[in-house]
């Protein structure tokens, strides 16, 4: 395998992992406004990181299956899914209702982690169709989302609602860009 190709794939995965983690970051900013102890912040980040490993892994498994069945058309389906997800994230960032749906403790934490990581299932599906390396992908998704969740929660503790909307819109724009890249190869 060509080292340039591998480095390009790693860079691409880092950017996608960052884009997915921005969703967790922006939600973490809002949740950080709730009075949380550092131990809770640590636990929330780890749980969200684990769900950002599990959900794309499930999506990639489904994507590999679809890739074998659909062949070349599968790449365009994956691109369309990424583009739709990006538009959805941008749209969600423009909505004014930013009240947290759940509190990040107990069962609320599990529900919170599932809701934050659902988009990574779709991205995993797209990347599974595209044929990326599963272990590298899920580890990067988990690491980026965990660290960005921690940052969001910690900054949310200190700062009032300045970055949440913009970071989710940035994540959506990145996913939209990668979706368009797959749909319109140059």
Automatic annotation (TrEMBL):
Please provide, in alphabetical order, the Gene Ontology terms of the cellular component aspect for this entry.
Answer: plasma membrane
Q: Name one GO molecular function term.
A: manganese ion transmembrane transporter activity
Where in or outside the cell it occurs: the entry states: Cell membrane
Topological relation to the membrane, as annotated: Multi-pass membrane protein
Q: Keywords assigned by UniProt?
A: Cell membrane, Ion transport, Manganese, Membrane, Transmembrane, Transmembrane helix, Transport
The record ties this protein, via InterPro entries, to: Mntp/YtaF, Put_MntP
> What's the superkingdom here?
Bacteria
What are the TM regions of this chain, as residue ranges?
6-29, 41-67, 73-94, 106-129, 135-156, 163-184
Q: Which Pfam families match?
A: Mntp
HAMAP family named among the record's database cross-references: MntP_pump
Quote the function comment for this protein.
Probably functions as a manganese efflux pump.
Q: Hey, which family's this protein in?
A: Belongs to the MntP (TC 9.B.29) family.
Annotated protein name in UniProt: Putative manganese efflux pump MntP
User: What does the record give as the organism's lineage?
Assistant: Bacteria, Bacillati, Bacillota, Bacilli, Bacillales
């Amino acid at each position: 395998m060509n080292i340039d190709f591998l480095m390009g794939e790693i860079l691409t995965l880092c950017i996608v992992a960052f884009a997915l983690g921005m969703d967790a970051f922006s939600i973490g900013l809002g949740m950080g406004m709730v009075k949380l102890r550092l131990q809770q912040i640590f636990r929330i980040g780890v749980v969200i990181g684990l769900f950002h490993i599990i959900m794309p892994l499930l999506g990639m498994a489904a994507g590999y299956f679809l890739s074998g069945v659909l062949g070349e058309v599968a790449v365009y389906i994956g691109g369309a899914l990424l583009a739709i997800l990006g538009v959805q994230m941008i749209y969600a960032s423009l909505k004014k209702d930013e009240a947290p749906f759940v509190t990040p403790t107990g069962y609320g934490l599990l529900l919170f982690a599932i809701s934050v990581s659902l988009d990574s299932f779709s991205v995993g599906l797209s990347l599974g169709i595209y044929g990326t390396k599963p272990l590298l992908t899920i580890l990067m998704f988990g690491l980026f989302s965990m660290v960005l969740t921690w940052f969001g929660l910690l900054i949310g503790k200190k700062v009032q609602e300045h970055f949440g909307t913009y970071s989710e819109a940035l994540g959506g724009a990145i996913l939209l860009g990668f979706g368009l890249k797959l749909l319109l190869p140059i």
